[in-house]
């Protein structure tokens, strides 16, 4: 099946046209797109069940146009999911293992050999702890989250890179729309405490409110 799509931003005077071809299996597809106004060669993307590969021409300052290859591959390995993401001459390998209560996510970037891992543990439906550690820099961060219900959420954490502890309270669904919140309003209170200068602690708040005129 072959179909076309086009987008245009009248303010920026830019757009894009694309041609998409789906093979017999809908999980396989080839897309060729080009910006409008036309600049360089079109971008080609090949999609398949385990990922996708994109070829596009790039131009940087004082560098001739070059053909760039980006892609992502993923598949099940050892009761988890392994993904390889290649972009801008950097390869990132990531493995995800999770069950109903725990997630373990190690990853490594090549050629920098930057290794880090994330660990997430759910103690109950309302309590969750997340921990990240970068073996390359020895920086780490942790976040504890407690949800009272969808309209009240407390978070507290620490980031060793910036040496900052913090706590946050959301009144209203943090990720929901304002129009569905009680009184169509969401409020966040946040306390930031620098480890090296506790007297410089800051208390902040922000409010999101919706008014319907009609």
Summarize the entry for a quick read.
This protein is mainly beta. The protein is built from no helices and 16 strands.
Description:
With about 210 residues, the protein is mainly beta. The chain is about 0% helix and about 70% strand. It contains no helices and 16 strands. It is extended and about 55 Å long. The two termini are about 45 Å apart.
Distinctive features:
214 residues; mainly beta; 16-stranded antiparallel sheet
Our measurement of the CA-to-CA distance between the termini, rounded to an integer number of angstroms, reads 45 Å
Low-confidence stretches: none
Largest sheet features: 16 strands, antiparallel
Helix content: under 10%
- What is the N-to-C order of secondary-structure elements (H for helix, E for strand)? EEEEEEEEEEEEEEEE
Radius of gyration: 23 Å
- Relative strand content: over 45%
* DSSP helical segment count: 0
User: Quick one: how many beta strands?
Assistant: 16
Q: Give the class from helix and strand content and strand pairing.
A: mainly beta
The shape, in one word, is: extended
What is the residue-mean pLDDT, rounded to a whole number? 85
Strand order across the largest sheet: 1-2-3-4-5-6-7-8-9-10-11-12-13-14-15-16
């Amino acid at each position: 099946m072959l179909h076309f799509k086009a987008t245009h931003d009248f303010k920026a005077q830019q757009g894009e046209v694309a041609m998409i071809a789906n093979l017999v299996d809908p999980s396989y597809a080839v897309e060729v797109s080009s910006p409008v106004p036309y600049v360089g060669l079109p971008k080609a993307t090949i999609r398949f069940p385990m990922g996708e590969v994109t070829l596009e021409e790039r131009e940087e300052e004082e560098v001739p146009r070059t053909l760039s290859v980006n892609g992502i591959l993923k598949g099940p390995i050892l009761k988890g999911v392994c993904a390889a993401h290649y972009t801008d001459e950097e390869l990132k390998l990531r493995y995800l293992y999770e069950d109903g209560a725990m997630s373990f996510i190690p990853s490594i970037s090549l050629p920098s050999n930057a290794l880090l891992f994330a660990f997430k543990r759910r103690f109950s439906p309302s309590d969750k702890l997340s921990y990240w550690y970068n073996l390359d820099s020895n920086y780490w961060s942790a976040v504890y989250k407690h949800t009272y219900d969808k309209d009240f959420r407390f978070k507290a954490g620490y980031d060793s890179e910036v040496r900052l502890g913090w706590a946050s309270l959301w009144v209203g669904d943090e990720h929901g729309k304002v129009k569905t919140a009680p009184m169509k309003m969401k409020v966040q209170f946040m306390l930031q405490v620098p480890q090296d200068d506790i007297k410089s602690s800051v208390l902040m708040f922000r409010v999101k409110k919706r008014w319907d005129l009609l």
